[in-house]
Design brief:
- It contains five helices and three strands.
- A hairpin with a 4-residue loop joins strand 2 (27-30) and strand 3.
- The chain is α+β, with helices and mostly antiparallel strands.
- It is elongated.
- It has a domain at 2-58: YefM-like fold (3-Layer(aba) Sandwich).
- It has a three-stranded mixed sheet with strand order 1-2-3.
- It has helices at 6-11, 13-23, 41-54, 59-68, 98-104, and strands at residues 2-5, 27-30, 35-38.
Length: 106
């Protein structure tokens, strides 16, 4: 991991941000009192999502098990659009389900 002092990072901040976003390599910025790590927003969000998933009991084990399973054995899922409701149950003027139409008349 690359380490820069604060002055170097400040002098090249825009270039540094672009470089980190493109390379996905974090950079340590070392100050006199403490240090920090600069990562891209995309990488930070991925880190947060990973931590969130691993906080769920048993999730890490489940992920490892799933990664070990051959892709050909995995269940196949398809994303389909929801089926349109039957025209008899829809208010033709407003497109609202009939139950909402009658409830609003009371």
């Amino acid at each position: 991991m690359t380490t820069l002092n604060v002055s170097e990072a400040r002098a090249n901040l825009y270039r540094l941000i672009d470089q980190i976003a493109e390379s996905h390599q974090p950079v340590v910025i070392a100050g006199k009192r403490s240090s920090a790590v600069l990562v891209s927003t995309e990488d930070w969000q991925a880190i947060q999502e990973t931590l969130s998933l691993l906080a769920v009991p048993g999730m890490g084990k489940s992920i490892k098990k799933g990664m070990a399973e051959p892709l050909a054995k995995s269940a196949r899922y398809t994303i389909t659009s929801p089926r349109p409701a039957h025209s008899e149950s829809r208010d033709r003027r407003h497109g609202c389900p009939a139950r909402h139409r009658s409830a609003s008349r009371t």
